[in-house]
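Case study B.
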Amino acid sequence: MELSYQEKLTLIKLGELKKAKFKELVEKTGLEQVAVMRAALGLQAKGLAKLHERSEKVVKLTETGREYAKIGLPEWRALKVLREKGKATLDDLREVLSEDELKPIVGLLRREGWASVRKEDGKLVLEVTEKGLKAEERPIDRALKLLAEKGSVPAKEIEKLVPLKELKRRKIGGEETVTERTVEITPAGEELVRKGIELKKEVSVLTPELIKSGKWREVEFRRFDIRAPVRRIYPGKKQPYRAFLDKIRRRLIEMGFIEMTVESLIETQFWNFDALFQPQNHPAREWTDTYQLKYPKSGYLPEKELVERVKTAHERGLAGSRGWGYTWSPERAMLLMPRAHGTALSGRQLAKGVEIPGKYFTIQRVFRPDVLDRTHLIEFNQVDGFVVGEDLTFRHLLGILKRFAVEIAGAKKVKFLPDYYPFTEPSVQMSAYHPELGWVEFGGAGIFREEMTKALGIDAPVIAWGIGIDRLAMFKLGIDDIRYLFSYDLRWLREAKLVW
Amino acid sequence: MPKFDVSKSDLERLIGKSFTVEEWEDLFLYAKCELDDFWEENGEIYFKADSKDTNRPDLWSAEGIARQIKWALGMEKGLPRYKVEKSDVVVYVDEKLKDIRPYGVYAIVEGLKLDEEALKQMINLQEKVALTFGRRRREVAIGIFDFDRVKPPIYYRAAEKTEKFVPLGFTEELTLEEILEKHEKGKEYGHLIKHKPYYPLLVDSEGKVLSMPPIINSEITGRVTTETKNVFVDVTGWDLRKIMLALNVVVTALSERGGKIRSVKVIYPDFEIETPDLTPKPFEVELDYIRKLAGLELSDGEIKELLERMMYGVKLEDGRAKLLYPAFRDDIMHARDVLEDVLIAYGYNEIEPEEPKLAVQGRGDKFTDFEDAVRELMVGFGLQEVMTFNLTNREAQFSKMHLPCGEHPEECADYFNHPPTELVEIENPVSPKWSALRNWLLPSLLDFLSQNTHEEYPQKIFEVGKATLIDESRETKTVSESKLAVALAHPRVTFTEAKEILDSVMRHLGFEYELEEVEHPSFIPGRAGKIVVGGEVIGVIGEVHPTVLENWGLEMSVATFELFLRPLYTDPYL
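Model:
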């Protein structure tokens, strides 16, 4: 029979006492009350002890009663004054009695025969009597003392001294029902004690003291209910979508891409559109589709030769192109806006100079005038970049895109569709076959138009690409509301699965 | 990207051949379209076509798609030929329209047999061309009329605003002015002419109104039905080249339905033209250029054949292809545009992808690596990372932070860039809530906390994000600086807890710092400081002022700090 430390200890003590009050057991075992209770119930369940319960009425002192026990009953305090002075007015008694106690005091002293009362000059005067001078401890005083000593006394015992009614009337004491528990050892219990119980102290925490002193050898470890539920705790954790972006960044670097960064989220229209050969009357540049700044309104254009080449590309064409055939406005190009796509950075990088061959990428926060709802974000992250090399071809472009699908989406199959971007020709859209989502639009690419690359000073073909990661991220994070990518819901963030 | 519905049987009737839906999915690609969706309706299968190219209006209707596929499949070859016969119809254009809507070009298409589907396609094409290619009718507006109800010659003239006609969909006459106010189309497009002294009007020799470009046709001549046999097409705008292209797109589409194209003489005060002009346009490409960039081993003959399947007339000469392309296209600016057509004809999915072998090595931006290391450290303190929006508003940045800058910019005090007094604001925000770029991060974190007051505390969060500041010396007059911001919220939080973390961050980054006590309205007096490193103020630390907490609806104390990361960055290689 498996007994806990507490049960063993309690049983051993019971072996000595045979039958004991619960309180006594607490004292003898030195255990907490709850521990003894649990042990007693445990022993009873195993047939080693029996728990008896007996209810009984007891009397306890009230707040007033406890006060009287300390300073004396009002009649004794009044008598003390009378004994000293012989006689006293009510005003004299006020010094030792409260107003509440003063009112009934005359009746009380007369009933005890401790004082006589008469009127002098319209005032009540009390005079101590012979009986008063000799007065000794009464039953009520003994009851008060007993109650003060024991705290609680069985009602029956008190009744022997003074009627309970009297104590209640004088607000000295009150009645309560208490349950007294006794524990009794059974023959089976005695049998077990006779055979001998090996008692080891049981511990729940293996403390440094136990280890240092070696006492752990003498103790038993409390068995835990390992199935019991535990408190829910939350670690410090990276934001899941950002962790996903981190992962894509690492993967791109592994794939040989160089990271591009930029100093501001604000862009000139020049870099956002013009340098990418997007004509100034392009629908995407209309007021409803492009943010403009109230402050600051315009920025600066880059070096003159570059601006001149871009202007020529738009107006008359470059590199054998006929151009858009309109008058290009530098003021328009200077307008500032929150960057609308990562391709703006590719243009900047190409103008700044690149390694040829070279592979570049950026993960950029971009902005579009849209409303925020379950399928639209007002700002989001774009992953894009370019590959530049003297002998790059359209087949390479497809090869690069396919590689992204395999490396990043884990896709086995891809398909390509013709597409259109103002700054690339030819242009492709790729769908990747995701094992769970089916065909997902996964990225777009194209070869930057020569009108653009020539204007930026690059002669080699430049393959531009962008990968659409949001649907993949939403799948990975198990969400169908795109706003959760930038979640403001702490509960969700705390519960979100680890992204790795 | 124009999207429109086409019926499968209509397409197949135009092509003269049937296909399965799966086959259609691939066929659409020849026309730079994606088959977005398909469904059945009254026993008929419909496709949702998504046309990818904003510069190819000729591909925005069943007729255009069918034509391209017919060629791509080799059922027809080379340049499509269109016969244009002259009519004796003349349109006179009023000089006074010069600053109103100066140009109009016209055509007649005769002998049409339009069924419901053909009618739908005609209206769709007209709308899509005006909307997307014509920039919401500003640059191109198209009207199609029942020619049998029109008595030539026709006049395109500037009209008084008080002139009247019955607009499409109405039963009574309205003045031109009333049309702009009352008619649905008048309300939608009225802004294009409203401020002009006269309004454009197209009328016939009897004074019957055809339309009020670019707003609305008349009820009498402008209603085209399945009964209509002969139509008169009108395209107006500001750029002759552009509206002539739109006219070509419409008339060639109608001719695919068996219509005969008749040209019209348009007489301007200083010149006259005969429209439509369907003369094909020349272009020349080097075959090697195509071959090299495609990465495909194509013979001259193969390239010729691919081009012919894309409706080019091709003549090979000395390694070059002399091309003629149809008058309904105007998007060929460069040999690249021809290359794409060759590749589409070849089929993107027929090309074997090949990974380029480039001797390159990847590398991440070192500062981004540094930011990541800081983020790792913050997570180590048990803080939850958040990612919030850069877009915000003036109120959140200033007023809610107990700073006068919000309503009274003149009272802005210097808070050592926490926040700066100036804010980057958007002129045309979609919502006032998203009308500025944040210039410090603390409001974003308080916003976050304010949306999670029901969630268990302690709440300890951080963000490494951007604050956008004004810097006149830069190209964009702005700079978005990387910052670390921390907010700790729970019932017993104090300044000290924030300082413990700050102190630990500084030790881990190897920087000595000092805190200088500061009075800052966002923080409790005596519990706020500037974070100073090497004599430079890089951040702020403090216990958030109860007024600020009230403004954000927070009932929990918040201790915080925010600092610029750039000054704490050291080159990892040194």
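Residues 63-171 of chain A form a domain with the Arc Repressor Mutant, subunit A fold (CATH 1.10.10.10). The remaining cases will be described in the next quarterly update.
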